[in-house]
Fold this protein.
Amino acid sequence: MKNFAYLIFMVLLFTECLSLNGQLEDDADLETLGKWSVQGNQLKVIAKQPVENNTLYVQNMADYWKQIYEVLPKKGMDKYVTELELITDGPSETLAGVKPTDESNQTWNFGIDPADLPKGKITENQDFMHTLIHEFGHVLTLNNTQIEPSEAEYQVGEDRYLTMEGLAFKKSYINQFVQEFWYKEDRIESWDEIQSIRSERKKIDRITLFYLNHKDAFFTAYAAESPEEDIAESWTYFILKERPQNDHTELNKKLLFFYQYEELVAMRSEILATIF
């Protein structure tokens, strides 16, 4: 059985706290405060009763979940997101994360750290909005229509990228993205070499150097952590930034990548309509 770890978004200093492959280094650091099944904007069943003395964290979650659901594309949320989990490592570390509920990647768990929930409307908090859009990007690019479960442990050729969740279909968003921005630029080979380093400290040093050597190719340092984080961050900026007028830079090309998909442009409009 695959040991699922959250694909996470954290408030961190890149050179000090980076966790590789877009996943938390040790899920044991995250305490579960409560867990619900969700249907649309409703919390349906408490699967894990919140522990005593944590009721302050969870008493307003029904309202928060309605806000979260309202912001993100309904078609994707209704189809894939089936669980809400309150996870915490205290303030200002992990903000949120997603993970598949089983090996099929068909349904997903959305984890929120209540210690980092904004006060008031979530649409008024730029950091939290960025995080929500980023995490939905993982669901969008790693679900069962995009990724095929696989037992492979290493890349198996160059035509299909191997993610932590499985082997990407050739026409999937992430495979097309990786072919364009990682294989063509020979970045995947350097990144794969970094993954084979056993020392975590040396890994962090090398991936930091990797980012600094390709700084103009990534929207954030966090995006350089892996192709999975790169496409999730690029998706987020596709949502929040205006359409570029040209493709003269790699960052502009990454934004324009998403405009070739009508369904993603429609999702962009849906999200922006809730923000402005």
